[in-house]
Design goal:
mainly alpha, rod-shaped
Length: 191
């Protein structure tokens, strides 16, 4: 008999089609009139309690809003406080600390690498400036500038460094453009 009872009383939860069968079953025919009346009364009582609880909840929510207004708390302040708390919680988390340490270490390595690259580029420019090709270019520019100075009217042939030659050329160029076309015409007459 026990084996038969176990077969009738399944311990498995209802599956989809079983739920559909239970939902479509009409149990009202199995209930007496007295049981139906009791269930209807209980249903009305539960609905009334739910309505009352909703009203109480609504009143408490209004009271909560009033208190917050009196305290000067508004939605924006609450959002700020929530954000600040969340940010603090995140910063104190182990994952954040580990990530922060890793990124900090990576940043230090990147800074060192950029520093090394900058030093290498500076050294390369220094080497390039001391190379025979650059020296030859510097001499050609210097010769060209000296010949331009001579043609423009300057009599100073100091030779000087590349920087001095460029500076004197710029100075000579500024003087000739300051006189305008009239001065250029006067200089032509003097030649």
């Amino acid at each position: 008999m026990e084996a038969q009872a176990q077969g009738l009383l399944e311990t498995e939860p209802l599956q989809g089609r079983d739920e559909d069968a239970v939902a479509s079953a009409d149990f009202s025919s199995m209930l007496s009139e007295e049981e139906k009346e009791e269930l209807k009364a209980e249903l009305v009582q539960l609905e009334d309690e739910i309505t009352t609880l909703r009203q109480v909840l609504s009143a408490k929510e209004r009271h909560l809003v009033e208190i917050k207004q009196k305290l000067g708390m508004n939605l924006m302040n609450e959002l700020k406080q929530n954000f600040s708390k969340s940010w603090h919680d995140m910063q104190t988390s182990t994952a954040y600390k580990k990530t922060h340490e890793t990124l900090s270490h990576a940043g230090q390595k990147a800074t060192a690498a950029f520093s090394n690259v900058g030093t290498a580029i500076s050294k390369k420019f220094g080497d390039m400036r001391n190379s025979p090709t650059f020296k030859s270019f510097e001499e050609r520019v210097e010769t060209t500038v000296t010949s331009l100075k001579t043609k423009v009217g300057g009599s100073n042939h100091s030779g000087g460094s590349f920087e001095e030659v460029l500076s004197s050329t710029a100075h000579a160029s500024a003087q000739s453009s300051a006189g305008g076309p009239r001065r250029a015409a006067e200089e032509e007459l003097q030649c």
